[in-house]
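Dear support,

I submitted the protein below through the web form. The confirmation email said the job was done, but the results page showed an empty box. After a refresh the structure appeared. I'm attaching both so you can tell me whether what I see now is the final result or a partial one.
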Amino acid sequence: MQKYSKLDHSSLLSSIFFPRICACTPLPSGATDVAIETDPGITIGCRFYISDPAAPNILFFHGNGEIAADYDEIGPLYNEAGMNLLVTDYRGYGCSTGSPTVTCMFTDAEVLFQNTKTWLTDNNHTGALFFMGRSLGSAPAIDLATRHEDAIKGLILESAIAETLPLARILGIDPEKIGISEEDGFNNLKKIESITKATFILHGARDELIPAVDAEKLQSHSGAKSKEFIIIPGAEHNTMIATGGKLYFQTIKQFIDKVTGVTNWRKRRKTTKEC
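What the results page shows now:
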């Protein structure tokens, strides 16, 4: 695994992570809290929003200013659209213990994935598995996909990071001053080149933090033969769902249905061409 020691510099961590400790909140209907130990004495809190044991499962890595419980209203909307949303936190977020670092974000993601896969099996959840990352969460989602393509059906990226240094500068960090190169960063562009599983990239046209050009770069570098790319007009970094409304969830479900073969869209398309 790539080393991220330079990103773990104290001057960077305060700009990369915004941990928010929060007492565990009451569970919405259908939700389950799962605590996963990623290191001795370190537990990551996860909240799984479940609709149907046979529904597709999305292992979701959220943005740097969010916690799993922030999805208490959003999770049920995924459920209504026929998807299970499995939200994980980072160290120091929500009910989780420890302090976040970039290195731990990646190593924890591996443990979270392995434990989630076991949890799904033990609880008789048979639906296909997808990785999804939003904003900062795109980094662990992409990284996991490079190593576990045989375990997933696809990758979904929302407001994702393409290059690390431009984002660092937006956050007020001078990479040259502290000796950080692009190779020392998340390397999302390089990693996504090796991912061949179906990939869906969503981004807001008015994203003020991670510009839409990042989505274009990820799309062009993606090694997937089947890949979709949508820019949501008027959407900013934190208003993707508010702007897209129900269509946001429907679009993700349509992608999943195509990938899993739930729809017979290829047959319909062939019939249309013959008519």
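Response: this is the final, complete result; the empty box was a page-load delay. The two ends are 52 Å apart (CA to CA).
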